[in-house]
Amino acid sequence: MKKTGFEEMWPGITLALIIAAQTLVAAQTLVSAQAISAAEPAADVGTPPPSPLRFIDTSIENASPAWWEVAGDGTIRIHLTYDHERSSPNRANGHWLFRVDAEPGTDLVLSLGPFGNIWNGRPAGPVPEATISFISDDGETWRVIKAEPDEPSRLKLRVHMNGPSLYVARLEPYTVSRLEQFKSHIVFSSMAATESIGKTADGRDLDLIVIGQRDAPHRVFIRARAHAWEPGGNWVVEGLVRRLLRDDEPARKCLASYCLFVVPMANKDGVARGRTRFNMKGRDLNRNWDQPADPATAPENAAIEAWLDSLRKANRLPDLAIDFHNDADGKLHVGVPEIDDGTKAAYLRNMKRLETLLREKTWFTEGSTSSSFRNPGTIGEGLLARYGIHAFIHELNANWIGGLNDYPSSKHWQTYGEQFADVLLAYFEEQ
Ligand SMILES: [Zn+2]
């Protein structure tokens, strides 16, 4: 059938209408763009700034969530993401880990922040407590650089690009993968066992490592990494466990005296996600230990309590509990909750004895908190008040090791763990 003239013309009319409509939209877009540029001259976002920087890679394991920009003077400003505490003004930034991809041979200035933390409801100082940072060309071998105070609440790092990539970290990273690898190595020993005692908020397994015989005369409970930015305890645990599994005479003597129970990564989600302090529900896992944990918001603590309750039922509670952290002081936190005088005296006596043994047998020189020290709700005070376990917080100085006159490193912390085996043996022998 022959098409009418109109039918033949229709596609052409349609096309003309579409073009007219598109022209109108384009014209409107141009008008709005002109209105914006008239109000506020826009930078040319189509041209990359003149910088040797190619990328800040936060896809690596344990990397800190961040965004960045290159300032007019070439400084690379890296903006880290805060952790926020539930029902509290508290917010924390202290972890950083990322990989800088940039032109080899160039020097870069990195400005990190913000570090205007809120701590126990108060501003925690304009500059963070960090005086050093770690860098690495391969993500394996790390070296220390100075961290300079920058404008309020920021830190400046000056780095040189030996190659196309440079890893930058607050401390030598200890990742979830590293823990998995460590677990897979130690299970070959007949003296080691691993199990899951519950799930984290994200649904990860909460690990328990058991070294020795569960019916040994004494039991030690160690928790590490309740705060995600603080890897020191993980390195200490590795050193201690490896020492105990060496299958020599000193190790056999230790394991004849005590069994070691370790929850190596209490805030596993925070580590996996490169966060600083709180768990994924905004809970501080070293708070609220003066009451039963809320399984909905602090499942990691609820799991530890359920495990301790099972030990209590079997009359096998730990004699001693140590919670490893990092800070800028490295002291033993010996806080005494409201308990009867006899228990208090025995506890303080044991803590003093332990401090003496640490000074004798390790590089520890930092000492303990003063006799009036209190930090209610920490696991140390909570386990003492609610379970009768002689427990304390062991901070590890994240800037300097006085006893070695050196910067902290994974190597020094592992050595400390190895030395700790003998400290524990002597602690129980003297009892
Ligand atoms: Zn901590």
Task: Describe the protein's topology.
Blueprint: H1 5-39, E1 53-57, E2 66-70, E3 76-80, E4 83-84, E5 91-92, E6 97-102, E7 107-113, E8 118-119, E9 122-123, E10 132-136, E11 143-146, E12 148-149, E13 155-160, E14 165-169, H2 176-186, E15 192-199, E16 205-211, E17 218-224, H3 232-244, H4 249-257, E18 258-263, H5 268-272, H6 299-313, E19 320-327, E20 332-333, H7 341-361, H8 379-387, E21 390-397, H9 410-429
Parallel strand pairs: 3-7, 17-18, 17-19, 19-21
Antiparallel strand pairs: 1-6, 2-3, 4-5, 6-14, 7-13, 8-9, 10-11, 10-14, 12-13, 15-16, 16-18, 20-21
Helix pairs in contact: 3-9, 4-9, 7-9
Bound molecules: zinc ion.
